[in-house]
Amino acid sequence: MLSRAGLVSALLVAVFAVAEPARGGDTFPGPNITRPGPNAERGARALQAAQAAVARRWPACRIGGPPREVTFTDAPVPADLAGALGVLRRPQTAAEAAIVAGSPAVPAFGYPATDVVRSSLRIVRTLADGTQIRLFAALTTPQLVARPEVCRIRELRELRRRVRSLPAQARRAALRQQRLWARIERRAAALPPRGPGLYLAAVNADGVGLGGFGGVTLADVRTGGPIVPLARRGQSLLLGIAPDGVSRVDVVLARGRSPFTGRYYPTTLRASGAVVDNVVVVPVRRPIADALVMQHTFRATE
Question: Residues 113-126: pLDDT tens digits?
Answer without folding.
Answer: 778 898 999 999 99
